[in-house]
């Protein structure tokens, strides 16, 4: 196959964005797929009639979006390849916009409820015994006496993400990961602000998690959905002293 096939020279205005357009065309048309290697910077610059700097800037922009993976060196994993890392890109984007208050916290939490209801329903129907056991192990770790707030938050995130992944919908799982990671700092800040009030709330969260797990074990999709929503709304009310409505 001719490596030059499909690569057309681009105009020089806003060059790196036009290079991105050409790469996107190759992906959308099916010429490039996950794991495929792009031509080296020098070669691609010649094919497109642009500078290496423009190609490098395009590569970096697409890497930040989770579309490409760049690795230096001379081994089999070196070079620039098409990646499949949507959760990383979504997480980075959403975390910044949450930090900038472009998305009100209540809106983010409502979106989380919609996604996690879907995940819980699907997981109740599709989760394997191994996935259900993984959830139980996470709950046991959260019960450990030496589980501090940061560790609890990390395990809590893993629990909810594991449910999303067990549901079998990759997009829902990636969006759940993005929302949970974007909320990591606000959640830790809320935990700290609670002071000693954190301890009874942590007990409530542990209890909620067990109820969710029990619903999944029972393959009760309706109950799993309801328990997840009640759990999220209850914590939001306790941590931010507001109702979602």
UniProtKB/TrEMBL annotation:
It comes from the Bacteria. The keyword rRNA-binding does not apply. InterPro entries: GntR_C, TF_FadR/GntR_C, Tscrpt_reg_HTH_GntR, WH-like_DNA-bd_sf, WH_DNA-bd_sf. One of its GO terms (molecular function) is DNA-binding transcription factor activity. It comes from Saccharopolyspora hirsuta. SUPFAM superfamilies: GntR ligand-binding domain-like (SSF48008), Winged helix' DNA-binding domain (SSF46785). Residues 13-85 form the HTH gntR-type domain. Keywords: DNA-binding, Transcription, Transcription regulation. Signal peptide: none annotated. This is FadR family transcriptional regulator. Pfam families: FCD, GntR.
């Amino acid at each position: 196959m001719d490596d030059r096939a499909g690569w057309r020279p681009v105009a020089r205005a806003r060059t790196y964005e036009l290079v991105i357009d050409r790469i996107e065309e190759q992906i959308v048309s099916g010429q490039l797929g996950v794991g495929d290697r792009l031509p080296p910077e020098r070669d691609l610059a010649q094919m497109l009639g642009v500078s290496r700097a423009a190609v490098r800037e395009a590569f970096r922009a697409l890497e930040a979006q989770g579309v490409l993976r760049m690795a230096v060196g001379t081994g089999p994993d070196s070079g620039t390849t098409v990646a499949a890392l949507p959760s990383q890109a979504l997480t980075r984007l959403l975390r910044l916009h949450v930090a900038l208050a472009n998305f009100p916290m209540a809106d983010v939490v409502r979106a989380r409820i919609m996604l996690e209801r879907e995940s819980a329903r699907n997981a109740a129907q599709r989760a394997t015994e191994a996935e259900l056991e993984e959830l139980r192990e996470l709950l046991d770790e959260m019960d450990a006496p030496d589980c501090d707030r940061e560790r609890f938050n990390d395990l809590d995130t893993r629990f909810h993400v594991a449910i999303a992944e067990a549901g079998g919908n990759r997009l829902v799982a990636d969006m759940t990961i993005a929302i949970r990671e974007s909320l990591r700092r606000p959640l830790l800040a809320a935990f700290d602000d609670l002071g000693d009030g954190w301890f009874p709330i942590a007990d409530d969260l542990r209890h909620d998690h067990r109820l969710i797990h029990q619903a999944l074990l029972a393959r009760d999709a309706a109950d799993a959905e309801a328990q997840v929503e009640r759990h999220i709304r209850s914590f939001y009310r306790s941590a931010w002293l507001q109702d979602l409505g």
